[in-house]
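Marked as duplicate of an earlier ticket. Keeping the data here for the record.
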Amino acid sequence: MKKEFEVKLSRTEWEKCLDEALKNKIKDLKIDGFRKGTVPKDIYLKKFGIESLFMDAADAALPMLYRKLMDENKDLEPAVMPTVDIKTINESEIVVTFNVVSKPEVKLGKYKDLKIKKEEAKVTEEEIEHELGHLREQFIEIRTKEDGRVEDGNEVRIDFEGFKDNVPFEGGKSENYRLVIGSHSFIPGFEEGIIGMKVGEEKELNLRFPEDYHAEDLKGKDVVFKVKVNEINERVYPEMNDEFFKDLAIPEVDTEEKLRNFLKENIKTHKESHIEGEYVEKCLETATKNATFEVPEEMVTEEVNRMYNEFAEQIKMQGIEISQYLQMLKMDETKLKENFKEEATKRVSYRLVIEAVVKSEKFDITEEELNKHISNLAKRYGAEESEFLTQVGGRDFVKYDLEFKKAIELITK
């Protein structure tokens, strides 16, 4: 629901904002006959006019006006930051209108005891073997085969060039390319065709690209690859002996059995975390479907913008500016934001339902609970409690976070 509210400051409050704006203007101002920062008020106003202070003063006044709006409308719950229009601004007053989108009324359906089954985390021997192989791969030794032929599992260095209708195709050529036979890095038949070749041997492989290959001009096409083997290497896995366990440097793991148990627990922990995430998602999805409400488009837009900015920061940490990313994908900002909309709508919906549960349950948060939660969060973020509270906006924010946590626990119970 949208509603317009008119708010004005008292003359005294507005004059303080104007005075503050004047001080900020004067401190860096230099006029002939006066030292920087010492220009008298009357000289400044005569030269520049009172109107030159209005915008800076308005910036200072807006937080005060917003607090006044909220103080005068205790039941008001803005869904997003209101838009503001300055209706009147002059030497004696400022009057603004806040266009407020209120949070929707959420009629909760069933949100407790949802009877959603949580999977059990099971670890198979195949998964342990896979992780064990991956771990041993880090300590693999490469030995050159002076004689002999290419075998499955060997690492080879090859030259190759691909031809379609006797014409080389783009991206089909490389020299001294490193390839592990059995890695399935190439199209079917390529690696198998190299098995049995010797160093220095050249061979033509008649192959066909898969029907679902990503390049339109190659999918399902017959091609010929000319291949030459330059080097053959054996990949020798380490034995699981004392030296291997010493290199691993995993506390209290000095036998194969202990290593397998360690890997099993790691896999299980990872699976449990994944299962828990899926379970919470299913519970929130069900509780949201059982509720009745409309999601304001403004809340979705705000969440989309937040997701977009987070994504931009993430790829910036990888050395890519968002503008470069968009250029590489031949996409504009609007299209990328559109991709976030479904997830943003879901996040907003879940948040509204959780807030409704908090209201409905009226959780009793004791000071002891709140202090403990503050302490735990501060430790998690590696900050002093006072510093942490300043950063997040005080105890009320942490209380809100704790109420959220309790609501989710109730929904997923």
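See parent ticket for discussion. The two ends are 33 Å apart (CA to CA).
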